[in-house]
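Lab notebook: predicted structure, single chain.

Context: the supervisor wants predicted structures on file for every construct in the current expression panel, including those that have not yet been purified. This is the next one on the list. No modifications to the sequence; it matches the entry in the shared construct table.
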Amino acid sequence: MTQKEIDRNMTQDEMAYERTEMSSERTAMATERTAMATERTVLAEERTEMALERTALANSQTFLAYVRTAIGLLAAGIGMFEFVNNQTIIALGAIIMLLSPVVAGIGLIHYFTVRRKLARLKTTYKDTNR
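Prediction complete. Output recorded below exactly as produced.
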């Protein structure tokens, strides 16, 4: 073999080695991208689950606000009814007292409506991620 052939063979071997090395690097990068995508998917699922839990907690808090408002209306109505001698204010107190269970009922209906929707969302979300 001449020196040119030896040089050519070495160059071809070096090129083959570099191609193999580049292929390995590409495979490693693809594996890393896949791992990152999987991690992002897991994080997105966790965020969605936490958002659903936050919404459920906010729903409970909203229901308690309705109850607190109903109790406030009841207390205001009792105060007007018991401690004032004016007939108009007494009638207003009675109306406010009657509004109290209405507000509590609206809060209860709202609570269970949102709770049912959240249960459907959680079920749908879990079914699509299996």
